[in-house]
Amino acid sequence: MSISRRMMLAAIGAGLIVGAVATTAAAQTVDSIKKAGTLKIGMLVDFPPFGLTNANNEPDGYDADVAKLLGKEWGVDIQIVPVSGPNRIPYLQSNQVDILIAGLGITEERKKSIDYSRPYAGISIGVFGVKDANVTKAEDLSGKTIGVARASTQDTALTKIAPKDATIQRFDDDASAVQALLSGQVELMGVSNVVFAQIEKAAPGRFDQKFVFNQQLQGIAMRKGNPELQSAINDFIVKVMNDGELEKIHEKWLGSPLPQFVKDAKN
Question: If you ran DSSP here, which 8-state letter would residue 146 be given?
C-alpha cells in the first residue's frame, strides 16, 4: 500500500472517530427526546419502595411513579430499563438509557462523572422505637439497647454518637433487627425511614421516630454537559413539588410526607 493511500485511510479513520465522538457528546435536550418519542429511564427494581417489580412483573414503586409523571409532563412514552447498583452509571454513560431515576444518592464523588437534578427524594437514618421511650437526642440513649444491622451505615454512624454506656446490639441484617424490635428484644432501632415505613405497615402506631442522625438526598442523573436537560428536569421537580403530586407519591410508597430536608435542598 502506498504512503499516500495509507495517509488517506488514516484521515478517513480519524474523521470517523471524531464524528463518533461528536455524536456521543452531542447535547441531549427535551426537544430531542420529544422527537424520539420515548424516554429511556434506568431504574432499580430491587430497592423497594423506590424500585420493585409488581405482581404483573412490571417495574413499580416511587421511582416508577416519578418516571411516569415525567413522561406525561413531556408528552413522551417512557421505557423503564432495569439496572443494578453497580451498572446504573455505566448504562447512563454508554447511552443505554437517557437518564437515571434509580435511588441514586447525591455525592461529590459521583458528581465528577454525572450531573444531577435537584433532589426529588431522600432517605433519613435515625433512631426509631416504642412510642413511650423518652428519647429525643443521642445523649438519651444512655443505658439503652439499640438494634442495628451489622456494618451498616446506621451501625457506623450510631457507634460514633452513642454514649459509652449504651448497648448497640448488632444483627445480621435489617430484617433480623426489625424482628428484634417487633418482638420486644430491643426497644429502639437505628434504621432508615424506608425500612421504618415497612415496620409501620407491620405494626401500625406502635413505634415512632425519635431523632435523625444522617440524611441522604437522591437526584435524577444525566450525562454531563446537558444543561438544558438538567434545567428542564429541575423545573419538573419544582412543579410536582408545588402541585402536590410528589407529596402524593411519597405518601403512597413511604406512608409519610416528603421530608422537609428534600424540599429545602437545591442540590
Answer: E
Coil, strand or helix at 192 = strand
- Beta-bridge partners for 99: 41, 222
Same domain, 228 and 115: yes
pTM for this structure?
0.75
Give which of 211, 221, 38, 197 is closest to 112, Cα–Cα: 221
Quick check: helix, strand or coil at residue 137? coil
Residue 15 in this model has a pLDDT that exceeds 60? no
First CA to last CA distance, the chain: 57
Question: What residue has cell string 429511556?
Answer: 40
145: helix, coil or strand? strand
Q: How confident is the model at residue 61 (pLDDT cuts 50, 70, 90)?
A: very high
pLDDT surpasses 70 at 121: yes
Query: Which structural domain, as residue segments, surrounds residue 50?
Result: 27-123+217-264
Cell of 114: 454525572
Rounded Cα distance between 261 and 3, Å, is 65
Cell of 204: 401500625
Domain count of the fold of the chain: 2
Q: How far apart are CA 145 and CA 160, in angstroms?
A: 15
What string of DSSP letters covers 147-176? EEETTSHHHHHHHHHS-TT-EEEEESSHHH
Spacing of C-alpha 13 from chain mean position: 41
Task: Retrieve residue 81's grid coordinates.
Answer: 430499563
